[in-house]
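All the exercises in this workshop are built on plain-text protein records. Sequence and backbone structure share a record, each on its own labelled line. The question running through the whole workshop is how a given chain folds. The record below serves as our worked example for the rest of this section.
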Amino acid sequence: MTSRRMLWVLALLTLVWGLNWPVMKLGVSGSPAFPGAYPPLTFRALSMLLGLPVLAGALVAVKVPLTMPRREWGALLGLALTNMMIWHAIVIVSVQQLSSGRAAILGYSMPIFAALWGLVLFGERLGWRQGIGVAAAGTGIVLLLAHEFGKLSGSPLAAFAMLVAACIWAYGTHRLRRSTMATPLLTVVFWMTASTTLAMSLLAALFEHAQWRLPPPHTAGAIAYNAVGVFGFAHAAWFTLARRMPPVASSISVMLIPVLGTFSGAWWLGEPDR
C-alpha cells in the first residue's frame, strides 16, 4: 500500500534525481558557458565526503542510531556493492561520454532488469500494465543502443556500461528488499554510503591523483548539490521506498527521472537531440 507521504517523498526524489543528471554532466564535463572538465571519480568522492556528515546529522536529528553490529557487516557490504559502489563508479565515468539525457535513460533501464531478476530468481509475475511498461522501456533502450553503435561519434562502451550498472542496481534492489538485517534501514543506508565513500576515494586516489585540483565554481556547485540533495536526502529516500514497495513498482514509479534529465539537459546545457 502506497501512502500519501510516500508519494510526496517519491515526487521530491524524482525532482532531485532528475535534475541531477545535467548537474553531474556540468560538474565533470563543463559547458560552453562554464568550460573545464573535472576528474569524475574525484567529483563523486568529494560529493560523498561532504554528503556523509549531512546524512549523519539528519539521522541524529531524527534519533536513528548509527551503530552497526559486527555480525551484519558482511551483508551490509554486499548491499553496498550492488546498490551503490558499482553504480556510482560506472555512472560518473560514463556521463562524461554521453549526454545527460541519454545517460539518464540508460541508467533508468533498471525497471526492466528488476522485472527480469524478479521473474528468474524470485518467481515474481508482471501484470499486463507492468508488462507493457517494461516492453516500451526496453524498446526505447534498444533504439538508443542502436544509435550509439551506429554512429562514429557514439559511445557504445559507455552506453553498455550504463546498462551493466542498471542491471546490478536492479539486483541490489531485490536483495535490499529481502534483507533480514535487524539494524534500522537508515542506519544501513548511512554505512552503505560510508563504505561507498571509502571505495570512491580509493578509486580517485588510484586513477586520478595526478589530476587533483580545486574544483572550479560550477563543479563546486554541482558537488554541493550532490552532497545535500543526492547523498543527504535522495539515497535515504530511495532505499526506504525500495524496501517498502515492490521492486518493479518502486522502480517504474521513478521513470519520470530520465524525462526530467533529458529535457533539463537540453534546456540548461544545450545538449543536442542526437
Remarks:
- The first helix runs from residue 4 to 29.
- The two ends are 40 Å apart (CA to CA).
- Residues 16-28+38-62+71-268 form one domain.
